[in-house]
Amino acid sequence: MSRRDIILQAEGLSIGYGSKSQAAMIAEELSFKLEKGQLTCLLGPNGVGKSTLIKTILGQIAPLKGSIKMNGKPLLNIGYKELSKSIAVVLTEKVRLGNLTVRDLVALGRTPHTNWLGSLSKQDQLIIDRAIRLTHISYIQDKVLSELSDGQLQKAMIARALAQDGDLLILDEPTAHLDLINRFEVMQLLRNIAHEEEKAILLVTHDLDIAIDTADEFWLMQCGLPLVIGTPEDLIVNGQINLLLPSERLSFDKMTGKVLTSSDVNYPLMEGGDYLIFWMKLFLRKIHSTKVNSISKISIIDDPFSIYIEKQENHFRFETFNDFKSFLKD
Amino acid sequence: MKNSIPHRNLFLFLGLGLIILFLINLGVGSVFIPIAEIISGLFGGEFSKKSWEVIIYQYRIPKAFTAVLAGIALAVSGIQMQTFFRNPLAGPYVLGISSGAGLGVAILVLTGSMLGLSLFAGGVGGWAVVIAATIGAILVLLLMSLTAWKVKDSMTLLIVGLMFGSLAGAIVSVLAYFSDADQLKIFTVWSMGSLGGTTISQLKIFGLAVLIGLIPVLVFIKSYNAMLLGEAYAESMGVNIRQLRWAMIISTGVLAGSATAFCGPIAFIGIAVPHMARIIFKTADHGVLIPASLLLGAVVLLICDSISQLPGSAQSLPINAVTSLVGAPMVIWLILKRNFSKEF
């Protein structure tokens, strides 16, 4: 990728609060860059400094050490007004105004570009229309914010950020509080925006599985460790993704991309399709019954679904996991 | 909830209402003067009674203009505070700004005898009162901004505002205890609130102060719109929060301070009128809401003043009583509804 497409670049960055002499360092030696057309997900446990990093990128707090540059210019030398034309944000706080329509909200995104009265030109209207179209919210553009569902509101907030027309979009947990379908829709939407509108998007999320599905790049943040950056698939294959799971009890399953609770269950011999064995293992981990130890073999058949158990020369057959569960609990 | 009546028509209607109410306000009082008589009198004709001319020019026109100016000042400071603090219950009276202004005036009036000043006579005295009230208002506003920065909860902010109000009131009581009877009488009459006490020269000062107070609002209309989404979003859209905070403090201080200086504390106009504007205009755009609050503030205070004249009787009520009777139920209704988001 050519240098021109790099929007933001940081080198040896230390972030935290306070003055240089009496600083509360939160993370150090961070080096990264954000490029046009890339969706980057920042992952890490609560309290590791994700918000501090975002505030530093937004120019709201000064870095304690190192450099951070936007389009080659030191971030701190760029004024508020100038910066607001390049970076737009979607924050976690809920905005539910009963007098503001979705279109008005999106129009507010034009604030850095309009005159003192905030009047909108033809050009502004076109950009607003486009932002509304890209986020698929035309059907609710005349609704007021207090009437929207969480998913609709989040899309409207994204449209507002798009209307601000910067090269960089930063979103703080855009999928928190959303239902499953909206999580996918919002992330897919962001991915499309990054790729088709040539925006650099950085978002903080805790939704590992959806992030794996959509992100071009992961930034993994862990206390006291340098930022690990890479393509999600690389991080999974080389096991660095486990950085997110320092606990012994959790492990990342490379096969399914799921986080699993590790357990000391000794699985009996199993036969059956891959996916059937996967769910049987999950079932056995959850049930955590000592009776499992006396089972010598489990065979699972797909059609019609049945579970055959060999236990001390006895044979049993179950038609559902639920029946099997009752058996194990007796 | 798409607006059905175009804003232009609503503004025309409000403007027309303002003129009509202004004329009615001139007509009512202990002596009723027919509106037709007033119109012909104002446009070069002769009043049929000489006394009417005196009443209109010497008393009622200054009073009506005072109502208009005070209504504008209080309503515009109210909407600024509500948006800046993101608190639908903010207003100069509830947050103790009027009390702060009152304290400023009290210090000036009650300690004035020691300095040998005669305050409520003439132009210099007028400015002195405005400046004292403005300083008092700004001081309380600074304290409130500090509090709002620490406390995000709107109810807590309100309680702190009430405390500041009580504190200012207590200091006034202490001052009153040590001051002499004449000064105390002047202050007590002032604190009852009245639109009728302004002279033409004071009116000029008032008008100028309101004009000065309106300038920062007009400059920052766009920033107030961005503030609807909260400080963090506003900042991300290039709004300089520190600048806006000072603009709000100075503007509100001058507006609420001067209104309080000339009319005494007037309750509930500042808090209730912006909500009326939101309900009527169904918008969140300050480019509409600020002029709307400005007009509505003038209209509402003219109505309140006309009611306080108790048409048909020789008595009149204190203006503060009437605005409280109108405003307090509205605020209670807002609190009971709790769902501020509908209008805010």
TrEMBL record, chain A:
The lineage of its organism: Bacteria, Pseudomonadati, Bacteroidota, Cytophagia, Cytophagales. The keyword Disulfide bond does not apply. Residues 8-248 form the ABC transporter domain. Pfam families: ABC_tran. SMART domains: AAA (SM00382). This is Iron complex transport system ATP-binding protein. It comes from the Bacteria. GO terms for molecular function: ATP binding; ATP hydrolysis activity. Keywords: ATP-binding, Nucleotide-binding, Transport. InterPro entries: AAA+_ATPase (IPR003593), ABC_transporter-like_ATP-bd (IPR003439), Metal_Ion_Import_ABC (IPR050153), P-loop_NTPase (IPR027417).
Automatic annotation (TrEMBL), chain B:
GO terms for biological process: siderophore-iron import into cell. It holds the Pfam family FecCD. CDD domains: TM_ABC_iron-siderophores_like. The chain crosses the membrane at residues 12-44, 64-81, 93-121, 127-149, 156-179, 199-221, 246-274, 286-304, 316-336. One of its GO terms (molecular function) is transmembrane transporter activity. PANTHER family: FERRIC ENTEROBACTIN TRANSPORT SYSTEM PERMEASE PROTEIN (PTHR30472), TRANSPORT SYSTEM PERMEASE PROTEIN (PTHR30472:SF41). Belongs to the binding-protein-dependent transport system permease family. FecCD subfamily. This is Iron complex transport system permease protein. It comes from Belliella pelovolcani.
